[in-house]
Design brief:
mainly beta, 4-stranded antiparallel beta sheet, single chain, 10 strands, 6-stranded mixed beta sheet
């Protein structure tokens, strides 16, 4: 059974940083592309970032490019999202997702709230 457990969210001030983690189990993590998606209040799901199995290809939404960095540790089965220079519009529930794109199996999510 695929399990994805996100952590690291919280309340941060404008311009602050957070590092999200996603612990994966139940599938061959090292062979899977992974993604981060978010759901902002009253909005649809937004694909934030994707990373291929070996990390050779990475994609970012324009809204986070230059501020967010995705990475992975295939030895520990953990996906990361380093978020810097956070803005109020980054407030959302963040999910890690198995696969490339926004439609894969997700975890329960972690709330990120950016105050101005």
């Amino acid at each position: 059974e695929v399990q994805l457990v996100e952590s690291g969210g919280g309340l941060v001030q404008l311009g602050g940083s957070l590092r999200l983690s996603c612990a994966a189990s139940g599938f061959r993590f090292s062979a899977s592309s992974m993604s981060w998606v978010r759901q902002r209040p009253g909005k649809g799901t937004e694909w934030v970032s994707g990373i291929t199995s070996g990390g050779g290809t990475i994609w970012y939404a324009d809204s986070v490019k230059g501020r967010f960095t995705v990475s992975r540790d295939n030895a520990k089965n953990i996906l990361y999202l380093q978020m810097n220079d956070l803005e109020p519009q980054d407030t959302a529930v963040y999910y890690c997702s198995k696969g490339w794109g926004p439609g894969g199996i997700r975890g329960q999510g972690t709330q990120v709230t950016v105050s101005s």
